[in-house]
Amino acid sequence: MLVLDASVAAAWIIDDEATDLTDELLVRARQETALVPALFRFETANLVVAAERRGRMTQAQASQALDLLAGDWIRLADAGSGPSRWLELSRRHQSINLSAYDAAYLATAITAAVPLATLDARLRHAASAEGVAVLPA
Hints:
By secondary structure, the chain is of the alpha/beta class.
C-alpha cells in the first residue's frame, strides 16, 4: 500500500507529464492499492477540467482519466486525521510553506505508516523530515 497524491496522478493522465518513474508507480499502485484522502478526488477532477480547458486532453481522454482514477485500487483513507492535524503539520513545515492540502496527504501517510508517492518538492521535503518514505525514490 502507498499514499498517492494528485501530482503523481497528473502524470498518469496528462501525456506530456508521464515519465518512466511515474509509469512504474502506476503499476505498483494498481498492485498494492493506493490510499488517498478525500481531497484527492477533488484535486484530480480539477486537474482533468483544467487540462481539458487548456487543450491538453480531449473530452474522451478526460473520461478515460476519470475512469482510471475511479478504479477500485484507489481507496479513500479513513478520516483518522483532520484539520487540526493538517494545521499542525503545516505549522511544523511553515519554512517550506506546506499547504494544508499537502499536509492531508502527509497525515494520511503518517497514519497508515506507508510510503507517499508525490512529485511535489515541498511535500517530498516535509515527508522526508517526518520519516515517511517518498516515492519515486
